[in-house]
Amino acid sequence: MTDVVIAFLYLSILFYLLLGGADFGAGIIELFTGGSNKERTRLLTYQAIGPIWEANHMWLIIAIVILFVGFPTIYTTVSIYLHIPLSLLLIGIIARGTAFIFRHYDAVNDHFQKVYNFIFVYSSFLTPLFLGILAGTVISGSIDPQATDFIAAYIKPWLDWFPMSVGVFTVCICGYLAAVYLTGDASSPNDRALFRKKAIQMNLLTVLAGGLVFLTAELEGIPLVDNLSKHTINWIALATATLSLPLLWRSLQKNYHYLARVLSGLQVSMILFALTYSQHPNFIIMKDRALSLQNAAAGNSTMQGLGIALLAGSLLILPSLFYLIYSFQKRPFNIGKK
């Protein structure tokens, strides 16, 4: 049953990146859109993510609950040594959600709309940044349980070049996914052209940010390339993500929106798989030891109950969630229609 729980954990992380990440990316796209296109982008973003943005945080909640119940040592380690970026991540999620609601449902349309817009777009940028920083820190080997001062124990592990580069990489992925998804939601040729251009730009930035991750890993002595080289399947996954780029760009040019979405999701999934599998069996790498999901798992009875709860819950919740997404994807998008 432990393997079932681990599978749910990784799937939750993947779906949060693909769905919740795209929601963050909508704010990132808005942040880097100027002029007359900003308002059109804002309206289309609201129509696209408005009904389901909060439901996407379910995946993060599931991942946290799995770690809390099934892998308490890992949960405790992250909560203690990375409490600063973790707290900033959660504050960003709350601030973003609050601003998103107020800027669309505030009864008075006044100067506070600028405040709401500011909070929404910058928290959309900073939240995935800290999500990536967390991910980069847990595989960097920089957490030092033997540290004797506050800076060394709670700041230096995550405030470093490699975690920051992973954070930037995560931001680029989120913006890339959002641009691809919004290309399919746009109704007018002008809007589709705008988001197609954004998708290609964010795709190129993601490739550059990925190169930055490898560069900072080498500079800091993190064996990222060596870990990837341990298993051929890692390079197959990365090659699949890379070789699908021309097909993705062709799909965007031909307005094959569903194929473009599938390909972008496949790319991100392959990248996440390669980076995750390269660390196997470790989940957190520290200076003095590493923690794997297998050796940090709770007792058999706990894992048995957690696995049964996840299986039963998926049968009840997932069909409703996918029907919700399907229902709102069937709505007409009339913003900017010509």
Structural summary, described in words:
Keywords: Cell membrane, Membrane, Transmembrane, Transmembrane helix. Mean pLDDT is 85; it is low at 332-338. The longest helix has 31 residues, at 189-219. The protein is an all-alpha fold. It has a two-stranded antiparallel ribbon with strand order 1-2. It contains 14 helices and 2 strands. The chain has one domain (2-221, 299-329). Helix 8 runs antiparallel to helix 9.
Order of helices and strands: HHHHHHHHHHHHHEEH
Outline the biggest β-sheet: 2 strands, antiparallel
Beta-strand share of residues: under 5%
Indicate the percent of residues in helices: over 70%
The total of beta strands comes to 2
Placed side by side, the strands forming the largest sheet appear as 1-2
Domains (count):
1
Number of helical regions: 14
The radius of gyration is 20 Å
Q: State the distance separating the first and last CA atoms.
A: 54 Å
What overall form do the CA principal axes indicate? globular
What class would the helix/strand composition place it in?
Answer: mainly alpha
Output mean pLDDT: 85
Residue ranges: pLDDT <50 for 5 or more in a row?
A: 332-338
Keywords: Cell membrane, Membrane, Transmembrane, Transmembrane helix
Protein name: Cytochrome d ubiquinol oxidase subunit II
Main location: membrane
Membrane topology: Multi-pass membrane protein
